[in-house]
Design brief:
With 326 residues, the protein is of the alpha/beta class. It is built from 15 helices and 11 strands. Helix 5 (84-92) runs antiparallel to helix 8.
C-alpha cells in the first residue's frame, strides 16, 4: 500500500498534465514485452522495425523492468503540456547524487545494477548526455509518429476529467481514475501489493498524468524531492490504435471532397485544428475552412477545452462513414 497525505493546501494544487516523456518511458516495457502489449499490439508490430538498429540497452535496463523505474527518468511534468526536447533536457540536467540514488533503488529491486547502467552510475554527467541522445532517437522512431494520436486521446480524457471535477468534485475524479486508487479523508491510497510507502505532500500538491502506455497499471511517483504524481490510462484507450475508416471515406469523398472525407475519418476522438493539419498535411487555415463547412452541415461538433478547441464527428457523420450494408 502506498499512501499520500493531501492536506487542504495540497487539494488546491492538484493538477493535470500531459507528458511526451512519460509516454516514451512507459512504452519501453510494452515494446520489450515486460508489460502486457495486448491493447498496444498494433503499435508494437509497427514500431519494432523502426527501432531496429538503435542501441537501447541502457534504456531497457532503466525502464523495461517490471518493478522500478528511476524517478529521474520521468519526473513530473511542470506544465500542462510539455515539449519532448525540454523534458529530455531536464533529464540530462539531473544532479549526479539523484541519479545514483535512483540507480541504487533500481539495483535493490533487481538484486544488482545491470551492466548497461554502470557507466551512468560511475559518470552521471557523461552518462546522462548519452541517455539524452538515446531518448531522442527512440522518440523519433517510436513515439513521434503516433504522438498526434496519443495527444488526441489525452485531450479527450482531460476534457472529461475537467467536466467531472466541475460537476461532481475531486471525489468523483479519483473514484473513476483507477481501481487501485482510493481517496478518503486526507489520504490517497494506492493498492500496490508488495509496496509500502508513505508520503506527506506537504503543500506540493499532486499531478495526474494520462499515459496510454501505463495501461493496465496505475504508476506512482512518491519519492521526494519530486511532486507526487500518478500516471493512469486515459479513457478510450481501447480505440487508440483502431484504423480510421479510410476505405469508407473514399465513396464519401465523391460527395464531400477527399479532404473533408479524410478529415471526418480522423475525428473518431476529439482532435484540435493543429493536430488535424498534421494528420492530413494541410494548412491550419484550410482545415479551419473545411471544419466550418462540416459544422454547418451538422457533421462535426466543436468544443473548447482550455486553450484548445477540439472537434469530433457527429453520429450522422459516423453513419455516413460506415453505412449499413443491404
Amino acid at each position: 500500500m502506498i499512501e499520500i497525505r493531501l492536506a487542504p493546501r495540497d487539494l488546491a494544487r492538484i493538477r493535470f498534465a500531459r507528458s511526451p516523456l512519460e509516454e516514451l518511458v512507459h512504452s519501453v516495457p510494452v515494446l520489450a514485452g515486460t508489460r502486457s502489449p495486448a491493447v498496444h499490439r498494433p503499435w508494437v508490430t509497427a514500431t519494432r522495425p523502426r527501432v531496429d538498429g538503435l542501441d537501447l540497452r541502457a534504456l531497457h535496463a532503466l525502464a523495461a523492468g517490471p518493478l522500478v523505474v528511476p524517478d529521474f527518468l520521468a519526473p513530473p511534468p511542470e506544465r500542462l503540456t510539455g515539449e519532448i526536447a525540454d523534458e529530455v533536457a531536464a533529464v540530462a540536467a539531473t544532479p549526479p547524487a539523484r541519479v545514483r540514488a535512483g540507480l541504487d533503488e533500481l539495483a535493490l529491486a533487481h538484486r544488482g545494477l545491470p551492466d548497461a547502467l554502470r557507466p551512468l552510475y560511475e559518470d552521471p554527467e557523461r552518462g546522462l548526455a548519452r541517455l539524452a541522445d538515446i531518448l531522442t532517437a527512440y522518440w523519433d522512431a517510436a513515439i513521434a509518429p503516433v504522438w498526434p494520436r496519443l495527444r488526441a486521446l489525452h485531450d479527450a480524457d482531460l476534457a472529461h476529467r475537467a467536466h467531472q471535477s466541475a460537476a461532481s468534485g475531486l471525489d468523483r475524479v479519483f473514484a473513476d481514475l483507477h481501481p487501485q486508487a482510493e481517496f478518503s479523508g486526507d489520504r490517497l491510497r494506492i493498492d500496490k501489493p508488495g509496496h509500502r510507502a508513505f508520503r506527506d505532500a506537504c503543500g506540493t500538491g499532486l499531478v495526474l498524468v494520462p499515459c496510454a502506455f501505463a495501461w493496465p497499471n496505475l504508476l506512482v511517483l512518491h519519492n521526494e524531492p519530486y511532486q507526487p504524481a500518478l500516471s493512469y490510462a486515459p479513457r478510450g484507450i481501447a480505440t487508440l490504435w483502431e484504423d480510421t475508416p479510410q476505405a469508407a471515406a473514399e465513396p464519401l469523398g465523391d460527395l464531400l471532397g477527399r479532404s473533408r472525407a479524410a478529415l471526418l475519418a480522423h475525428l473518431d476522438l476529439p482532435v484540435s485544428t493543429t493536430q488535424l493539419a498534421a494528420y492530413l498535411n494541410l494548412s491550419a487555415a484550410a482545415v479551419s475552412q473545411h471544419l466550418g463547412v462540416l459544422r454547418r452541415s451538422r457533421l462535426v461538433t466543436s468544443q473548447r477545452s482550455g486553450r484548445w478547441v477540439l472537434h469530433r464527428r457527429t453520429a450522422l457523420a459516423s453513419s455516413l462513414l460506415s453505412p449499413d450494408e443491404d
